[in-house]
């Protein structure tokens, strides 16, 4: 049995991060179903925070308005081509992107990252890694598919409960400001470490796939790590 460690550096407002997460899910599933002995190997994913800080305003703002500000130098044709590309990439990963909704003030995803850390990585964490990954998926889905403002506590409560986390635990975690300060530090350190932005995957502390790796590319890396360790 092998343990394959993956650090996944991302921000929840990043559409490509969601696509990369889905590709990672598919790669792990394929590996465990097809590689000899793969079902007995363990994947340990660390969900590392990153802040894209798309919203410079002190309040929640419509995502389309923010996109207009960030992409002001693009022509309408370029914008349409980008949206078409993103929608196609999302469909290939089973993600029905909804570009509407609101984005909270910076750092808009701090509390979301805080909940993910407390769900599965904090010392004495009550929930397992599978529940933590379910929470990651639920937050991505809330923002990208349900057009929900994930800076709002009620939205995060709903996502956490959907992942199987008790409401009382979520309410407790939302009050842990010291953890939020730690998330701030980690997000800043990850911004320095990644350089190329997000998503960034680091497999077994050394392998970094370029761009947005597809499931087959990731599976080949898993096999390389597995056979190298053997």
TrEMBL record:
InterPro entries, sorted: DSBA-like_thioredoxin_dom, Thioredoxin-like_sf
Domain DSBA-like thioredoxin positions: 6-213
Pfam families linked to this entry: DSBA
SUPFAM superfamilies: Thioredoxin-like
Gene3D superfamilies named among the record's database cross-references: Glutaredoxin
Protein name: Thioredoxin-like protein
């Amino acid at each position: 049995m092998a343990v394959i460690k993956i650090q996944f550096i991302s921000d929840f407002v990043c559409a490509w991060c969601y696509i990369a997460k889905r590709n990672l899910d598919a790669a792990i599933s394929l590996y465990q179903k097809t590689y000899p002995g793969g079902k007995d190997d363990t994947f340990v994913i660390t969900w590392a925070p990153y802040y894209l800080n798309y919203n410079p305003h002190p309040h929640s703002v419509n995502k389309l308005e923010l996109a207009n500000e960030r992409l002001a130098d693009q022509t309408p044709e370029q914008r349409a081509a980008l949206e078409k590309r993103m929608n196609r990439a999302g469909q290939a990963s089973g993600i029905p992107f909804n570009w509407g909704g609101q984005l909270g003030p910076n750092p808009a995803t701090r509390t979301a990252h805080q909940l993910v850390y407390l769900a599965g990585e904090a010392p004495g964490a009550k929930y397992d890694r599978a529940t933590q990954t379910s929470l990651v998926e639920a937050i991505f889905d809330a923002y990208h598919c349900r057009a929900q403002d994930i800076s709002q506590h009620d939205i995060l409560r709903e996502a956490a409960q959907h992942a199987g986390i008790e409401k009382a635990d979520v309410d407790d975690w939302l009050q842990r400001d010291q953890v939020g300060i730690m998330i701030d530090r980690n997000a800043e350190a990850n911004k320095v470490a990644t350089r190329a932005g997000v998503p960034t995957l680091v497999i077994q502390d050394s392998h970094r796939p370029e761009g947005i790796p597809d499931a087959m590319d990731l599976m080949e890396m898993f096999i390389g790590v597995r056979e190298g360790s053997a």
